[in-house]
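sanity check this fold:
=====
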Amino acid sequence: MPSPTRRPAAAQTTLQVIETIRLTPGLVRVVLGGTELTDFPDRPDTDKYAKLFFPPAGSTLRPPYDLATLRDEVAFDELPTVRTYTIRRVDLDRGVMEIDFVVHGDTGVAGPWAANAQPGDELTMSAPGGGFSPDPEADSILLIGDESAIPAISAALESLRDDAHVTVLLESRSAEHRADLPDSPARVTWIDEDHDAPGAQLVDAVAALEWPAGRVQVFAHGERGAMKALRPILIERGVDRSDLSLSAYWAAGRTEDAFQAEKRLPVGQIFPA
């Protein structure tokens, strides 16, 4: 019997760390560059993201990483860990890519890597995906999120026309975790997180919002439970599905691996199948 045909591994780009910048106590910007940046297939979406590959310490594996093949050849704990992150900016004139990482101490894989990254360290990533950009034809735009959504919301703010009608609702762990946002015509409201129920205050703020007239485009990304709670509110407000980008970046009480695995289960789906 012939072996199953495997899809070829997606194109990957390997860049080098130039510097890191601590934007807030919980947000680290990693500035990357290198010769492969000019071949990176950038896209215009303000929420563009890529899968990042983090090989274990001491790994002898070299990119590009063909995970389908590697799973047959090396032990599970020798495989690179894969995480998905928003690409904050690609600036070919400066020769840099910027990715902002939320950091929770030593928890996780990507955050600690970013917090400890040194110039010259390598980071390999997939070709980017994405799906949202502010629509200049919308009457109003609503951008909703927590600290994990700051990069995508910041990129969206940079793309706005001067006459855009935009409201931003952002939840942060505390005032010191409120990152500086790009200058824009948006009205920005910061909300303090209820540490026992991340996202709950954000949901309440959306429910209490005086809803703008006309066609409203919504970008809402953040904690999974909060995003699921926002879905009926936004539907009730009459937001068309084509004008709604609603997704979870993480889930309270779940490791990243568990969160990713649950995406295929009912508990992990924002929109029921």
User: Anything to note?
Assistant: Confidence is low (pLDDT under 50) at residues 1-5. Residues 12-126 form a domain with the Elongation Factor Tu (Ef-tu); domain 3 fold (CATH 2.40.30.10). The helical segments are 67-73, 110-116, 150-158, 200-208, 224-236, 256-262. The chain has two domains: 12-126, 140-268.
